[in-house]
Amino acid sequence: MKIKFLVLSTMITLAGQQLHAQYGAPAGEWHTWGGDHGFTRYTALDQINANNVKQLQVVWRWKARAGFMAIR
Fold it and tell me: Is the pTM of this model over 0.85?
């Protein structure tokens, strides 16, 4: 009985996390790194489609300095 309860509660918890991950950045605006406070890196932009995807351009880049991610 305890195992069934544990499995059921785990499934409910994971299902809730999956639903939360689909919200992403509201209105396509990434006000935080990762898109939202949950760091989902997801946005449901509908302006990009098969007809205009080839027109996308890089508008900014960030170049890390040497050793930025080095473990000390």
Answer: no
